Amino acid sequence: MHPQLASHKTVGVTVQPYGSTCWWLTLWILNAIAVTAFQHSEASEPADSLGHGLVAHWPFDETAGTEIKDVVNAAHRGTLEAGASRVDGPLHGAVGFDGKKSRVWVDSPRALDLPAEMSAFAWIRCENVAAGEYGQCIYGQTASGGNGGQFELCVGRGKNLHEVTVLWHDVDVCVSNAKLIAGRWYHIGFTRTGQPGNWNCTIYVDGTASGAAKNIATDVGPALPFAMGRPGAYDGLYFHGAIDDLRIYDRALLPNEVKVLFQVR
Length: 265
Ligand SMILES: [Ca+2]
What we know:
Mean pLDDT: 86
CATH class of the largest domain: Mainly Beta
Largest sheet: 8 strands, antiparallel
Distance between the termini: 21 Å
Low-confidence stretches: 1-19, 32-44
CATH architecture of the largest domain: Sandwich
Structural class: alpha+beta
Number of helices: 3
CATH topology of the largest domain: Jelly Rolls
Number of domains: 2
Helix content: 10-25%
Number of strands: 16
Bound molecules: calcium ion
C-alpha cells in the first residue's frame, strides 16, 4: 500500500469512535482517499498503455555480472561481450560501448521477428556522431556477412554525420532532422507502419517527431541475429557511446505514447 494511504486509513480508524462529527470526518477522509486513488489511476493510464505490444525491454539495471535481462521475456537475455561495460544512464544503469569490439549479444529470439509494424526506443549517448561512410550501428539485425535484416539504428552515417538513420534490409529509409551532439543523452526511437511496398517510418528524438519517410517501397528484410553496439552478427560498425532502457514493440507507438515514454523516470 502507498504510505500516504496507509496514514489516512490509520487516522480514520482513530477518530471513528468520537461521535457523529467525527463520523462525518471519517467519511470525508475516506472520500479523500478514494479521490486520491482515482487520480493516481488516471495519471498512470498513459504509461499503462506502454506495456501493450512490448516484446522486449532491457533496462540494463543489473549491478554485476555479464547477463542483460529482458524484463518482458526471460528468454531474451543478452550478454556483455568484448568490453561492454556498466555505466550510469538516465534510468539507473546503462551499458557503455567502446567503439572497438564491445557489444551486447542477444541472437535471434522469436519475438524479435518483426516483419510488419513495430517500434524501438532507447536512451542513447554518442561519443562520436561523425563516424563516416557506414557510421556506427547502435543496435540492429544483420547476418555475419553483413546482410541487413528487419531493422537497424545507426548514427554518423554517409552524408548524415550528425543524425541517426533507420535502415531495413540494407537500405537507409529515414534520417532524423535533429543533429546530435556527442556526450549528451537523447531518447531516440522510430516507428514503422504500413504494409509491404508502402511503409512509413517516423523517427522521434526526445519525445517529438524528428524526421519521417512515407511510401517506402523497400521491403523489410528477414529476421536475423540481433545485437546492441554493432549490427547483429556483423563484425564491424561498432558503436562508441552508451544505451539505456531499450524497448521493442510489435506495434507503432502513438505520438502521445512516445511523449509519455520520454518522460518516464
Ligand atoms: Ca537503466
